[in-house]
Amino acid sequence: MKTHLACPHCRATLNPSVKVLLVVSYRSRKGMILLSPQPGNFKYVCDPTVEKGLEPGDLVKFACPVCHADLTSRRDKRFAELQLHQQGGSRRIIEFSREFGTHATFVIDGDEITAFGDDADDGDEINFFGA
Length: 131
Ligand SMILES: [Zn+2]
Known about the structure:
Layout: E1 3-6, E2 20-26, E3 29-35, E4 44-46, H1 48-51, E5 61-63, E6 79-86, E7 92-97, E8 105-109, E9 112-116, H2 125-129
Antiparallel strand pairs: 1-6, 2-3, 2-5, 3-4, 6-7, 7-8, 8-9
The structure holds zinc ion.
Zinc ion (ZN) binds at residues 7, 9-10, 12, 64, 66-67, 69.
């Protein structure tokens, strides 16, 4: 099933081919990162000038390469958000951790939240759910 990920601000498709292309930055370092469109697949290819020296827990910033909007989630600043469209499916939101080395992704469909990744249920989800 083809999955489209789109910018929540300008709605541009961010995976015109397979991988999702985003701008990633850490402090003054900025580059491109390729991510898998599949929730729970945490493989990525990052510009080494940005990735070099990052420590687990460092908060990187993701931005849309089309409109340059900051993709930080409005629900939880430790996450970045994108729109997720699947053929025949409803419009959902996908949120993934901005912490380097943290594997946590949430797919939000109205009130229904599905978690992916080893770090998605480490006790922080109370905050994430806004409860
Ligand atoms: Zn955009």
